[in-house]
Amino acid sequence: METHIKTHDNQFSTGIFAILAALSYWIIGTTHFLMPKAQLHFAEGIKAEFFRSLASGSMAFRVHYWVFAISSFLMMAVVLGIKNIMSAKPRLWLRLTEVFALIGLAITAINFVLMQNYALRLAKGWPNLDVSAQTAISTIGLPNLDPEGLFGFGLLGLWLGTVILIMFKANLIPKRLAILGLLGALFNELVFVGTLFHIALLIDLAVGVGGMIVGPVFLIGLGVRLLRRGT
Questions:
Q1: Helices in 57-154 by DSSP H: which ranges?
Q2: With 80 as the cut, is the pLDDT of residue 114 above it?
Q3: How far, in Å, CA of 95 to CA of 162, rounded?
């Protein structure tokens, strides 16, 4: 009986975190397209225009980076929640991808807080720097724990694709939800590839379609399903 209650509690709380993560993805996607192009540095790298743009306006940038960090913690809760819901004898590969996802999300949360704080401090004093100092800072760029997006997107997409396939085969989620989940995994990998090879179009596509449509719809669908099973 106690195990049954804990399982229902896990499903309910995981559902809540999934829905909150979906809402955070909408904010991330919206602020991505609200930021000036000069502030979208993941594909094209840091340039002097990045700091000049931040000095003139940084509200969307601040919201984007803070919500990205918060969404990483929300997704960590989803990963752990699904881990508790799955069978007691999981496959080794699933456990490995869970570890990969948790490490990637933790790095992403720390990374976005560090990059934001560092960028805003430099932007504040940017007009007072001489040309040589500005050139040096632009060359060095921002501190980035995940410059290729491997941890934050590549490994997360790997976990998502793995867990969706296992949940679908175990009849834990319907086919339509599984398809959305697999598409979400694909879009995570597109961000990784776009960042790795500096293809801004891939990142915009993944954010616009994956981050604002597929990802949130999947997480809300999963969240509602878990909420119903947890009540």
A1: 59-85, 92-125, 131-140
A2: yes
A3: 10
In angstroms, rounded to a whole number, what is the distance separating the alpha carbons of residues 46 and 139?
7
Length of the chain equals 231
CA atoms within 13 A on the CB side of 215: 29
Q: Give the chain's count of helices (H) and strands (E).
A: 10, 0
Could you please report the per-residue DSSP string of 2-41?
HHHHHHHHHHHHHHHHHHHHHHHHHHHHHHHHHS-GGG-H
Residues 45-80 pLDDT 10s: 788 889 999 989 999 999 999 999 999 999 999 999
| Of 167, 10, 18, 8, residue with least CA distance to 81 | 10
Task: Read off the pLDDT of residues 156-198 as tens digits, 9 standing for 90 and up.
Answer: 999 999 999 999 998 989 999 999 999 999 999 999 999 999 8
Name every residue whose Cβ is closer than 8 Å to that of residue 89 and which is 6 or more positions away in sequence.
none
